[in-house]
Design a protein that fits this description.
mainly alpha, globular
Length: about 400
Amino acid sequence: MDQEVNPALAHADAGALMPGEIALGVDDRPAWGAVVAMMLGVTALLTAEFLPSGLLTPMARDLGVSPGLAGQAVTATSLAGLVGALFTPRLTRSFNRKPVLLSFSILLVISNLLVALAPNITFLLAARILLGLAIGGFWAMAAATTIRLVPPSLVARALSIVMSGIPAAMIIAVPLGSYLGEVASWRVVFLLATALGAAVFVVQALALPRLAPKGEAGLDTLIDILTRPGIGAGIFAATLVFTGHFGYFGYIRPFLESVTGLDAAGVAATLLAFGVANYIGSFASGLMAERKLKLTLIAMPLAISVIGLLLSLFGKDVIPALVLVALWGFAFSGVPVATTTWITRMVPDETESGTGLTVASIFLGITMGAAGGGLVLDLMGAPAVFVAGAIPLVLAALLIAAKVRTGAP
């Protein structure tokens, strides 16, 4: 049964409620079940997004294409995600948020099933476009929805729970997906992802409350947000960070196979180290972002750039590669937490539109990183990917230090 409530914050506009909905008061209990449902949505969607990173070699072999071309499955997803993030708040501004969120889980299921059945790379890329629309739309609404599920004093805790779906997805998708892709097939892995998406849909249908739309979500709203002091620079910096990170991450398996010389089990173990370190780091980085937000925004991309350069130099040996990949996972944990904290703090009046812009910029970065990384991989080899990816990461850190504000607007 739907929870016919709008768990809005105390300052919510009661006039914005849809028929049959009421606003919760300050003393009402947080909707933790709904928060967990949002976290599961993040986990299922990002598991599907990250799967090609661990399955790149068998996918390329089966489809008869190069690993660089197979990696464009990430590019197609992220490009569609950019579109979904930009336009979902505007196109759905008059709809209750629950059915909109559920529609993204339906797209997830359809996409994974089509990928599992894909006869060629063109069909697969088309199926991944559906996933990108779902991910972009969901992320555009995730933070804005989450902060309406709990009182103001519990917003940081709720966001950290939802964001924990990111490292969970990395653990499921990359190491486990890589291993299962070898012992079974990459198509079986996507069928399992289809089942996971269906299960998450059921949980969300039961746990998510009905929420009225908030904010204007018009083009003039997006322009207003971008012209606020420091916002445009911060959003561009997010693009650069994700360009560098996904230039690395999309092609980590070919690097570990061709440079480090690991077999499927070794690749899975190394990527598991990334996921576990990322999960642990999500808690530490959450505390750091809460206390030193600007330092977190600067330090994480710098750390990832240094780690990437060290991998290009010392990644041929197993132990250094394992340690560096784990450190990379720990460092990256702070990026989504800090970025989400920053935009919700700086644009409290238009959270959906603000996060939509940020998510669109992130997907633009993923698109450029995946496309550029694939090109560098095919032309210059795996180590060069980690040298090239360091450039946008360093530029992002410099831009944040010089232009980005983190105080209350």
